[in-house]
Amino acid sequence: MMLEGLTGRAPGALPLHAVRAEGLGIFADGLPAAAAAFLRAAGFAAKPGEFALIPGAEGLAGAVVGIGADDGPWAFGGLARGLPSGTAWRLAAGPQDSAAAVLGWALGAYRPRRHKASGPAPALLEIPEGADAATAVMVAEAICAARDLVNAPAADLGPEELAEAVSTLAARHGGTCEIVAGASLEQGFPAVAAVGGGSPRAPRVAVLRWAGAEDGPLIALCGKGVCFDTGGLDLKPPAGMLRMKKDMGGAAVVLAVAEMVMRSNLPVRLLVLVGAVENAVSGTAMRPMDVLRTRKGLKVEVGNTDAEGRLVLCDLLAFAAEQSPAMIIDCATLTGAARVALGPDLPALFCTDDALADRLLAAGAEAHDPMWRLPLHQGYDSWLDSPFADLSNVSSKPMAGAVVAALFLRRFVPAGIPWAHLDLYGWNDSTRPGRPEGGEAQCARALHAAIVKFCRVSPPPQGG
User: Fold this and answer.
1) Is 116 a catalytic residue?
2) What pTM, to 2 d.p., does this model score?
């Protein structure tokens, strides 16, 4: 996709200086006396993300932005929309991480455009030369494409359109995509079919396969793709339903990760599963206390029709496990309980493998895309017991909702396969530098970074 805010060579581009607070005095000493006096009078302190224009004899001579010690992207996230509209800038030599600067600038320039007329043009940043900057552009493109999916109104993005997005992605990068629907869906993914049975927009599962190395390890990514969630017959209140176009945020995240992996040409095989459904209200919708079949063979009693995401994921996880992957990672906007525990910015990580968990947590910290591990506490597993089926889709107690949801999903993953579950929010409630209000591909950058490191630590075997 075309990114706003970035450009190639721009004649006349102004210098953008990055400065840490401890280096501000030296930087100011190198400016003309009038410009240095201007910065001091303006109270510029080089706090991370703080920026100021630098005056010159002909008008505007440049700008300076404060950065922190962590070299993160967010210090640059407010510049595309904060510097004068349409101006062009180049990174001056300094202590900044150029790739982080490009990423933060591009993510901050993003605005949803599907149904909104263009506003003021962002300031433009020249893309520096080098592979790291090119990778940052690639990552930003994948994140912004995922944001577009989450921001799309449900009327525009139903199960068919979401599955088509998977197919388009596969075709663009030399992969394959199978769309499972109709009788094949009812047979192979019965829980997904039950969740989508109340909507006139038929459910489907998109299965993307791609190989960066024919003998590479298989990584399975599963995404919850509930294009709109009314709650079903256990109807959500209006406030709870307001943002439910974002309930396919997990699918958007795994598609962003897949795009980054494929464009990086990593030596792995990918299996990406998206359960694309709408949880609607009608005479054909699943009912409370219905007992559903699942792909794994377990029977699930529907304790609440609004706990539909785990029903979608359980069939995807069972299918993924049948392929004997090196790991399974699922992403879902699954529970409000995770948000109560960790707030909107920290996705909850549940994991059956400590080495995989450590890799994901470290990658999240390094990529400034954090997550927080919560326990798969075995003592709560019995809360899923049902007198009428193998298990219920909800807990018998009003506590630890995110943990119990993860325990439900764990029933569908064999013990020998490393599995990580990310319960995320997928939304920015308000605009912050680099993170405009609306859909967000949380954990996508962290997952890509973790897979890159996995490839370095565990290279695939070499063919003869």
Assistant:
1) no
2) 0.96
